[in-house]
Amino acid sequence: SSYKANPAIDHPNDATKLQHISWLISEGYGDKITIAHDICTNHRLVRYGGHGYFYILKHIVPLMRDRGFSEEAINKILVDNPASALTFVPPA
Question: What SS3 class is residue 5?
Fold first, then answer.
């Protein structure tokens, strides 16, 4: 798919993104990976035909399992890594 504001910018599909993530894990970067999406306009909501807030859990996680991602890797990407990235430790 492409970015509508600039059709010269191509976006990889979900399968391609997961291939890249799988490679990053194989290279030892599994503890650095997080995934996210945003909903910034109404047309992204399910009510208006968009993917909605549950897209990652409903579509990406099953695709990750189909592609051989371990439950440990999925949990790390969706829970542990974001928790680590968002943890603020004040300087001593």
Answer: coil
Tens digit of each residue's pLDDT (9 = 90 or more) over 40-82 = 888 888 899 888 899 999 999 999 999 999 999 999 999 999 9
Tokens, residue 50: 């968009």
CA distance 73 to 71: 5
The C-alpha atoms of residue 36 and residue 84 are separated, in whole angstroms, by 15
In this structure, the chain runs to a length of: 92
How would residue 3 be classed by pLDDT, with cut points 50, 70 and 90? Answer: low
Domain boundaries, the chain: 2-85
